[in-house]
Design a protein that fits this description.
2 copies of one chain form a homodimer. By secondary structure, chain A is mostly helical. Chain A has a single domain (about 15-205), classed as Tetracycline Repressor, domain 2, CATH 1.10.357. Chain A has 11 helices and no strands. Chain A has helices at about 15-35, 35-45, 45-55, 55-75, 75-80, 85-105, 110-120, 125-150, 150-155, 165-180, 185-205. In chain A, helix 4 packs parallel to helix 8, helix 7 (about 110-120) crosses helix 8 and helix 10 (about 165-180) packs antiparallel against helix 11 (about 185-205). The longest helix of chain A is centred in the middle third of the chain and has 24 residues, at about 125-150. Chain A is elongated. The N and C termini of chain A lie far apart (about 60 Å). The first copy, chain A, binds a DNA duplex through helix 3.
Chain lengths: ~220, ~220
Amino acid sequence: MVVIVVSGRKRKFDEQTALQAAMEVFWAKGFVGASLADLTKSMNINKPSMYSAFGNKETLFIKATQHYIDNNMQAHLGVLLAPELPLKTRLKNYMMSIVGMQCSTDHPKGCYLVLCQSEVAGGDIPEQATKLLLEIESAPIALLSDLFNTDNEAITLGLNENAASNALTLYTALKGTAAMARSKVTSTELEFVIDTILAGVFNTSKNYSTPKAILQ
Amino acid sequence: MVVIVVSGRKRKFDEQTALQAAMEVFWAKGFVGASLADLTKSMNINKPSMYSAFGNKETLFIKATQHYIDNNMQAHLGVLLAPELPLKTRLKNYMMSIVGMQCSTDHPKGCYLVLCQSEVAGGDIPEQATKLLLEIESAPIALLSDLFNTDNEAITLGLNENAASNALTLYTALKGTAAMARSKVTSTELEFVIDTILAGVFNTSKNYSTPKAILQ
DNA sequence: ACTTAAACGTACCATTAGGTACAATATAGA
DNA sequence: TCTATATTGTACCTAATGGTACGTTTAAGT
């Protein structure tokens, strides 16, 4: 990041610190629920400073969302791709790493993205922000799907047969834990959930056939 | 429901129809995101009529929430408690019945309750409404937990050993599918997810021990 | 037909929403 | 030190928010 300063009064606040504060407000309240007053109060700056530094509410949101991804999502990738560990262990570590964040008391509970993505259907999120939120959705599914398709152990276990569905299952589970975390459920309680779901993915992979909708 | 009419002009709108319309707005937008203008427009009445019939935004929300439970949640209970069917089948039917509703095009996607419960943490939902949303949360978990504790087949399979955790697992899965449904994922795609998770619950019940947080 | 009471529609209230104009202030370079 | 430029704080803008006052309209009971 290159900052060119020609002259003029210096900024009193740190842009990254302010962005972090804005991110936490969106995390707690969503895009629609976060007011400019909420945001600027947490960021500890006034509105003109916010507008000059970040554009408007939508562009601030886009930057905050990117900040969330960079600082709160990417970190979990390491444990997923860690070599030398069995696939199931890597998946468990990855999922529990995310669940741990969802339940942490260091910031709002749950997942920033799950909350804001659920607002999209309401139709009150501006165009560019909506586009970003929809794009983000596909990345983790593609990542897991790709893993099931290419990992040697996954192929041996037959998990590649239903790679997309298995990825969807884990992603759905993480959206569920995000919602539960918002309701103050603990990481310890959710570990059972993750273990059970992983057991389902690993045990049912070999003899799965397309099920019927309602069984009699 | 007893309606005593003394005299005066007759209502032009049907209260249940209006409540249904309000419910769908809250379902799409949440409590905070739904404005009085959104609500009265969908209800096809004006504000004074709304206030005289339903009190205010919060009491309207409480009635709409109860309407949702009565009309969109209770219906699924039948298939869960249907006698003569294996437990796993009953659970699958119950969950797919809910997933089918979450994915239906007859109303907003996802779950009214999951959306509104996720707004609670934002702090912008009034007291009584918050209380109701939190109370509602415990019912389905208690129902499933009780089922695992008392159903003969569940006991035989050892599912009662971790009744509360198994209930939490299924409830978490349903919250996940609610979030996925909002993103236009289909009921067919989610059936795989439900099957996998049920397989996990039913297969891991016999030899489960408390897991460690991060495995090496 | 007349009275009484309820629902309706318009117009309004105070507050908050997102967003800006502008003067005062602080800084770097000449 | 002077000038050019960028940030700050205050005060304001318009539109939308949840909520109401009040006069008009419609119906039931007599």
